[in-house]
Amino acid sequence: MQYIGIQTQQSRNNIRSLILLCLFPCLVVGLVLLFCYLLVIFSAEESYEVQGIRDMTMQLFIQITPYTIGGVLIWFIIAYFTNTAIINSATSSHSLSRKENKRVYNLVENLCMSQGMKMPKVNVIEDDSLNAFASGINERTYTVTLSRGIINKLNDEELNAVIAHELSHIRNHDVRLLIISIVFVGIFAMLAEIAMRTAFYSGGRSRNNKEGSGALILLIALVAAIGFLFSSLMRFAISRKREYLADAGAAEMTKMPWALASALRKISADPDIEAVTRDDVAQLFIEHPGKHVKGVFSGLSGLFATHPPIKKRIQVLEQF
Fold first, then answer.
1. Of 109, 166, 165, which is closest to residue 134 (Cα–Cα)?
2. Exactly one of 49, 126, 166, 252 is catalytic; which is it?
3. pLDDT, tens digit (0-9, with 9 covering 90-100), for 240-260
């Protein structure tokens, strides 16, 4: 595998992640336009000409778009500012005091001082498995969360590397980016439901044709599925690239890439946190706390994976 320097890797991943994130609003607009076109096609009179259908499509698009953008914006604001409480509840995490574990606090504090960062909050999940994640959208809410198992089972160098990985996510604003992408996927799910309801109540009324109405609902469902599929693929791609970037950042902070490689080997043996049942929250962890698909469909499952394979991450770390 060809060696890639830290700065080069950071630059490439930042550009790719920005491109992927910019595709979300473009996809929303494109799907709304396609939805309007299909709705007009199946509800307009058969005598309408192509130009008439286009005009009706654009008129409906102009009418629907402000409401769509308004709904998306409201959804985004609510989800964006309540994410911390949602994540804490979904992981059953609680704050870890300095008196309770000075070792962890010293490791976090020393790394933050070396990088000129404000120290984030430190939370713990009472689970014997090994995992960790970073969360928050600003300095007031930034948090590093560690499982009890990862605190107890890693040595100081390995735990230091894991904490550095999570601090890299914070430093590079990865958690903010991932939270935004998670929110967008939720928005597509909402839009898909709205599209289905609209198609059900509007489809085929002018032609009074049940067959046409059924075809409209099928096509709208297909459009919604395509939107959700592509938004999910983009979200997962952002997550995978950001994991490589955070690994590189940890190696840069600690000057011990082998320590993170060793930690990842131990984490991969037991990453499953029982309290985590939501996949959107699970993707925040250093290793996805879920089962991996093996066999014939393993290649296809890689498209939907939120994390790159541990072996590949370790190979990259061993290049430094």
1. 166
2. 166
3. 778 888 998 899 899 999 999
